[in-house]
Amino acid sequence: MLIPVIWLNALVYASELTLLSIGFTLTYLTAKIPNFAHGTYAGVGIYVSFTFSRILKISPYLGFPLAFILGGIISVIIYILVINVLTKMGGGVIVLTIATLAIQIFLSAMINIYAYWARAAFIEYSTSFLLKADDFEWLGFPGIFPVAIGISVMAVIVLHFLLTRTKIGVAMRATSEDSELASVLGININQIQLFSWFLTGGLACLAGAMIPMWFMSSPTTGAAIITSIMAGSLLGGFESIYGAIIGGFAVGLSEVLLTYAGTSLIGTWVGEYRPLVPMIFLVAVLLVEPRGLQGAYERIIAPRRTKQPSEKAVPEEEKKE
Amino acid sequence: MMANIALGILNSLPTAIEGTNRLIVDIAMFFGLLVIVAMALNFQYGNAGIPNMGCAVQVIIGAFTVSALTTRLCFIILEGAGVKLLPWASDYDWVYDMTFNVATTNGFLKNNAMLGISLFLFSMAVALVLGAIIGYLISLPAVRLRATYLMIVLITMADASQIFGRNIPSISGGTLGMFIPSLFKWYPGDSGVICAVITLLLGLISFFIFRTMLNSPYGRLMRSIRENEVTVGSVGKNVVGIRRNVLMFASGVTAIAGVMNAVYTSFVIEAAYQRAYWTYWPWLMLILGGPGNNAGTFLGCALIVALRRLIIVYKFTIQSLFFFPISYLEDIILGALLCVIMIFRPNGLIPEKLLYIPGVNYSNIVQEDVKIDWRSAPKARAGKGGGLLGGKKKEESKEEK
Predict the structure, then answer these.
(1) Among the three residues B329, B344, B359, which one is the final residue of a domain in this structure?
(2) What is the mean pLDDT of residues B132-145?
(3) Under a CB-based contact definition with an 8 Å cutoff, are residues A144 and A12 in contact?
(4) Within this chain, do residues B150 and B284 fall inside the same structural domain, yes or no?
(5) Domain shared by B173 and B50, yes or no
(6) What is the distance in angstroms between the Cα of A61 and the nearest Cα belonging to chain B?
(7) Which of A222, A309, B127, B174 could form a disulfide bond with B255, CB atoms 3.0-4.6 angstroms apart?
(8) How far apart, in whole angstroms, are the C-alpha atoms of residue B37 and residue B279?
């Protein structure tokens, strides 16, 4: 194999986390709330893959479109039944966040019940499983490696064109900037919200469907990954899709690689502290630059880029300011 | 039955503490524990508007105080008194000799009531101080963070404290957990009863302290910060300082609940302090009863504790109705109930009332019915993008540029 397994681990995990962070940031942009149930959508995706592989006995890759649609539908139902109602009643950010926490508990319980039912009905070991055996091989790599990276790159490109070139994407950006002003311009806010919730749920569920192809999965995997998602999203600045791409990828890579470096340099006990890596990212970003990479970009690089030609001749002293 | 219970509590004969009576003691204990946590939460969120999602951190601090500090102090005192203990200095000895050492200690504590009481008071005091320190540490980043960021950090902190407890055996025995000396061994009857009675007393005391604080000028200041922090800041009040004090005080009180839980079960293990149990259930109690109202918190707490205990007691009857393990039924109830209450009864079972001010008759001042909507306050703050604990942030002004 050309690439060591640890890099394979890191790249697959990072591309999955990128998809999840993009979705988390999209929700934060359009609805202005951190969606704690976002990781649990990935849990739904994990069990879509499980169903296709172990119960229907076909390739789990065939389940990816279904995972996308199912995640989107769950997300839209949550928006219609809970988030939209609470927003219309005048609930603030805190009320809505508690509501997403409640949804997370509810969805987690549902996933657990499904796993239990599948174990009882089909005699399959459903609470801790790995679907590596169902993978195909491609140029000596496991199939998930090109698929995970390909899907996340595709998602990034499609999202970029969606947000910059299409009418609905521009409407989404307008809604996230100022929803009242956007509605004055004739944009149907409700439709835009529905679309973005569908997109975020679908992306998260798709990312979740890829997890059991390479990593050990259980009903709690989805809920546990939320810290990494939030760290990636926060590193990107919470307000920029492009920031979320970089942030999710960076957090995913460093979570695997730093833990690996720690275990090989210091001792195996470091491996237990892997969940602390995204937490350290969270706290460090909040203390150093609360607006993440987006804030750093706006503060350091953007002023230089937009500088007028006449200002280029400004002496060094002013640049320091 | 009532006479039996009364007799049981008065004499706490071992025969009286069985079956239904044991269940009543258990319900009373958990009601006392959770009412302390939920009231402290009400103090922070319902009255001062701080969404503290880290109750589990403060509770676990209390439990770790007992397991790591009180137990060590107890062993040092015992060795000073000449009691022979197995070695307990290294991590290995700490975990594997613990059962024997605790049994020896319990035998010693049985004849030394003063030592037991003073160790209990010591752990309460240390937990109060450590909880206040944690509250102070939480308030440091909170000065510059938005409310949602603070919630994220606190929820992950609860997980982090569990990871430390799991991987450092000298705190609470790692994954195996550890027995702790029974501090109420000197009590002639059942030590669970005195523990429950003390917890209920502590709950009552903290209720009166919280009520007095809320009805004082300081409480009115807290509520005014919740409603509009900019106004309060503009009349010269230190918004950041008041919020820090509230967080420190409430965190200390929450840590005491952790101490009581550890003493009652005589066993500390990190897995028992999941954020689902110690953060989400108190939040449900708070929102069910009605935020900003201690009577509502009492009612919500009683309802939820009774519901959960009933599910446990009638487990086999209920289990036959469902095909899945009913521990997931609890999760479904928790999640669905939270959403349903927030949608259909946004003010809780007992809505918030105006504060009582001695010497002022509200009915003369306020003619129409004043409705207080606790939901509007966080929205107003969040809409402005204001920080949780410190009004305007620098980053917001940067954005406007």
Answers:
(1) B344
(2) 80
(3) yes
(4) yes
(5) yes
(6) 29
(7) B127
(8) 9
